[in-house]
Amino acid sequence: MSEKYTSLSEIIHERKSVRKFDPSFEISREEITAMLSEATLAPSSSNLQPWRFMIIQDQDTKKKVREYSFNQAQLETASAIIAVIGDTEMYHNIDEIYNANLEAGYIDKVNVELQIQNAKTSYPNAPVEARLNIAAFDAGLVSMQLMLIAKAKGYDTVPMGGFDKKQFAEAFELESRYVPLVLIALGKAAAPAYGSTRLPIEKIATFV
């Protein structure tokens, strides 16, 4: 946690969606890697971690992404664009993930074999749409975690779902199993973000 913020609650309240970034500000690859490492501690369905990340820092590439993202200026001025991509064939990683848990001592051999069997029975046989929904849900979890981590370090972000996902996939020659879900602009704000209100809890929550 940075010296600027003293609690998670403060970070949550201070994080806003910034759309004007300082184009001269740079964030190192090492720091972005560290933030992603923390963000991926987020939970995921059966711990299959169906998220992949493409970090775009090259200026010409950022300009190209802006062309099929409704000309949003933050795509070009942010220090980096982090594309969060869903793996709809996350089941290919079942053995690697669960055996790593076994090696780390988080689970015993009997239970790991049971979990591997259950995952291999359910995920490969699930419809593609269901697997995409799982990947999209998990991408939301890791994306929010990443944005809070960035804010804790004094950086700013804005998530964007408004881009041509088909064009993005074609431009970066993504395999069909990989689906771009959200772009996160990461950098240093050049102007304050607009504030926004939220519906009262009494209107959206029910205790039963």
Keywords:
208 residues, four-stranded antiparallel sheet, alpha+beta, NADH Oxidase, 44% helix, globular, 9 helices
Q: Strands, helices and their partners?
A:
Elements: H1 8-14, H2 29-39, E1 51-56, H3 59-67, H4 74-77, E2 80-87, H5 94-103, H6 109-122, H7 128-152, E3 156-160, H8 165-171, E4 178-187, H9 201-204
Antiparallel strand pairs: 1-2, 2-4, 3-4
Structural description of this entry:
The protein contains 9 helices and 4 strands. 44% of the residues lie in helices and 14% in strands. It has one domain: NADH Oxidase (3-Layer(aba) Sandwich). Strands 1-2-4-3 form a 4-stranded antiparallel sheet, with helices on both faces. The chain has 208 residues and is α+β, with helices and mostly antiparallel strands. The model has no long low-confidence stretch (mean pLDDT 97). α2 (29-39) packs across α7.
What composes the largest sheet? 4 strands, antiparallel
The tally of domains stands at: 1
The CATH architecture term is 3-Layer(aba) Sandwich
Structural class: alpha+beta
Please tell me how large the radius of gyration is: 19 Å
Tertiary shape: globular
Tell me the CATH topology. NADH Oxidase
Strand content: 5-15%
Count of helical regions: 9
Query: Helix proportion of residues, in percent?
Result: 40-55%
**How far apart lie the N and C ends?**
36 Å
Instruction: For the largest sheet, list the strands in their spatial order.
Output: 1-2-4-3
Query: Could you give the order of the helices and strands?
Result: HHEHHEHHHEHEH
Unreliable runs: none
Mean pLDDT rating:
97
Total beta strand runs: 4
Organism: Psychrobacillus glaciei
GO molecular function: oxidoreductase activity
Domain Nitroreductase: 12-188
Keywords: Oxidoreductase
